[in-house]
Amino acid sequence: MSARSYPIPFPGENTEDDDLAPFPEPEVSSLALDTKPGAQIHYTYYPASKSQGNNPNPFSQTLIVFLNGAMMPRSSWDAAIRSFLEKRITGRLPYPGLLSYDRYGQGESDPDPDDPHPPPSHGHDAISAVKALKQFTLQIWREHLDINKPTHYPCLIFVCNSLGCALARLFAQCYPGTVSGLLFLDSIMANSDYQAFWPDPDAPDFDPHILPDDVTADQVRAVREKYRSMLHPDVPSPEGLSRRNLAKLLPDAGAPKLEGYLGRGPYLTVVGHDWETFAEQSSNPPLNVPKALTMTYANPAWRRYNEELCHITEEGKAIGPITAVRCGHFIQRDDPRFVSDEMVSLLDRVVNRVQQVSNRD
């Protein structure tokens, strides 16, 4: 998708003919957690927009945090973040602080210093990653909070892809009252071994006639093995984050209900991939899954999971599942402007506290 240019002044440019605020300079840096000294977590931070005269920024105590999946580093969010900021600046609208980061063992960040073995490994689990995220956001907030309106901890909005969606759910469970909004982009099926939704040609009751036309039992075996070798929870993680106990931590797609900011359920948007695009992408290496198999088995299973996800907040707070048209699993890569649009929509719901219909596509 081609990038659209916005007339936004950058620092140092002449702005006398335009009263638009300049595009903010990000802080690209790293820090060591107080609880894990010696290992650096790399991050990109954009400060919240400044209050204008008698119009205070309603998001001055809010922080949007981007949670990566297992295969994409924080840089995968750059285009969506830029698109979001362009929309807010050209609309002369306030925005909160924005934070993307590489988890331990991801991107530019160091491995988790507490892991017993170097990655790929099962060094730590999702709860460990959530605790590190809590400490990380606490230290970021401590360094960047508005001294005129200090709060101990920000109101969080999570924008997540894949595994990041599971981490956001666990965070909201572990730290109730901290999260006001959630944007899930093709969430991982946290309770799945990525085997059960495929037919098993070696099962005693297997009926080959249930397979789509032109798909053989041998092809199904190959797909099951490919998914097992790449996506099964027993596969060691390149970052050291194990998924072995993820199904026990999140056994139900639609439960438990989350307690968000001020004791209310968080606003939630659930987005799924485009079936055709995902099937096409999955037909290529490294998965090489026949499109008919993805369309018949994987896509419906994922849709059912996303439908259940909409129940993790109180009634009237969830939208979805909606489809990211022409996007595969990595929605922020395939259409960053779609992601920024959904961020704007979620932000409006959070600040206006409006009730939403449960479906929008």
TrEMBL record:
Pfam families for this protein: Abhydrolase_6 (PF12697)
Tell me which InterPro entries the record gives: AB_hydrolase_1, AB_hydrolase_fold
Q: Where in the cell is it found?
A: Peroxisome
AB hydrolase-1 domain residues are 64-341
Coarsely, its chief localization is other
Q: GO CC annotation: what is one?
A: peroxisome
Region Disordered, as annotated, extends over 1-26, 103-125
Family to which this protein belongs: Belongs to the AB hydrolase superfamily. AKT2 hydrolase family.
Q: What is this protein called?
A: AB hydrolase-1 domain-containing protein
